[in-house]
Amino acid sequence: MILRFSIALSFLFAISSLYAEKPASATLKERETQKQIDLQRKNGFGDNEIDTLHASIIGNLKKIKKLQELGVDKTAAQYLAHTPEEHKELYKKDKDGKPYLEIKLPQGQSYIDYPTVFLYDGVAYIYPKEDYSDLDKIILAFRRVNADGTIHVKEMRRLVNPSPKSEGTEKDEKGEAKLDTNSDIRLEYYRSLTSDTIWPNEPVQPAEPDIAMVLNDEKDPLPYDKQKHIMMSYKKMLRKISKQTAFKLRNIELDQKQMITKILDYNTN
User: Does the structure show a pLDDT above 90 at 173?
Assistant: First the structure.
């Protein structure tokens, strides 16, 4: 009887200790997770694909610039069509006289806050450095307004990367390519309840944002899941921009080939 009681008591102690360890294990897991988050924030949100996309975009713009210096775009506008067409400049200039490339991003209807339906559009402003050695700045702007209702709320969200960097030769302590931390990415939010509010389709806005924050502020960091979401969204938009700049480059290269064919085509049969 005593033996049975001892066995039962030992079994109960074992079960109790097993369940008692679970909270400690969970706490340890939380501590380890937080440690990883702190390390990520300390090192920044470097991403090899993002740096590669930056390099791809500026690479396309650099090649386009060389073809423009040869006058390919102006010559094509003059001679490729049946009648001369007006040459359209690829770059616009902001109020400070800095050139930038404007690229349209997705637009349409959004049901993310259903049953309210929103109309939205997006645009990217790409600033190359003066010598086209790298990108100088990238601005992504997204505007939306509710499509129905008696009160129309206008919103604009902007992501500003003031120092987008491409793949560099600089190495870290492990001998691997040092990635841009992207910590200085700025987020801006504009909101208006008046129908006469118009935010100009320009990179430099006359009004200050209602809310502004930095992606990885040491003193006041954003929630980690939001930081990751922002970087994933930024990467997604960069892929679109890279494809569109490649498309612009391909078009001007085709114009150059067509011009060569036009000059060399002596076949009169």
Answer: no
